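Page 47, continued from p. 46.
Same chain as before, 407 aa.
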Amino acid sequence: MEEPLEKLATTAGEQRRRAPVARLAKLREFGSGFDTNNKYNSPDELRTRFRSELEPGLGYAHSGADDQRLVYTACDPRLQPNERIMSTNSHSNIETAAADTTLVSPQAWIGLDWGHRTHAFALHDLTGFAEVGTIKHSPESLHHWLRELAQRYGGRPVALAIEANRGAVVDGLRQYPWLIIYPINPVTSARYRRAFTPSCAKDDIPDARVLLDLVRHHAHKLRPLQTQDEQTQKLARLVVARRDMVDRRTQLLNQLTSLLKSYFPQALELIGELNSTLAIDFLTRWPDLISLKASPASAIKRFYCAHNLRRPELLTTRVKQIQEAVALSTDDSLIDIAGLQLRLLLDQLRAFRKHLPIVEAEIKTAFAAHPEAHLFRDLPGAGAQLAPRLCVAFGTLRHLYPDPASL
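Result:
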């Protein structure tokens, strides 16, 4: 006897509603003997192994998205419904990059506030255990604490938030592959703290709790720190070292300019660029105007000629400037102390001029050996210093930039 249309529709609707539940139960049945702590048990492996059990239910326009979601859930039955493991928003590149780090929920979350003498931490794990404390500022204390965590959680993933993306502490944390490090922008943590602490009071333990809240409840909006290959890491450290040296040299030149303006301003016109051999030799030989005016014009001309400044009209102008110059002050104590400061600054400038080319040569060698140097070497406007910096900025982890907008 033919079934009524209403009954057929009801039966089809029930099958559609029950199909995902039935498929999830089947996956859990197969996954009961599956080692959820084994990082090699990937969703692709599970989907391939049990593909025959993932056939779409009646009335489904099957895209495979449900299978993917069910496989992720079956891999780790402990996942809560509100935990987002895979971003389905194609416009959320940060969430996608964070999700790619691990498919297994962390065993614990840690907020680490790094200080000068002690370092505060706040911890919360899947069992509900919570802990706060401090670590003494020493490599031994840090590694002892991390080894205890590795033993407590069996080397399974632990998410850690810290207000840094490089430096000594990050280098130490990177040695433990089970740590998922989330660098937190200080502005982010400051605004989060201000939202719940109107007084803006700061302390180590509360700051660690703020970082814990961010990594525990908002990890899907954060990007975990990705470790680049060894060649990129070496080039990155060289580039940072050079940038630091250039910044400190700039600061030194500003100090030297300020010092000369205080007692010997004529020198700034007579030597031109301070970061030059001519300037260093000139100020070493004539540290003040009085000693310069005491020298004969022939000695001054010979000095300029020895430093490739030979135009007769320019030499005549410089000698005339020196003869007409008037000292800003004739106070012996002022000039003597300024001379001591000048010698210190000149010695530092010589050191920068000696060691900076060595670092730049190391950068050139490391960049030439980098496997992706050809992508940046010939870019318009990318010179010998900018090209390696671009190479470091992009790195070799292409999944961090899935589309042009993510750049």
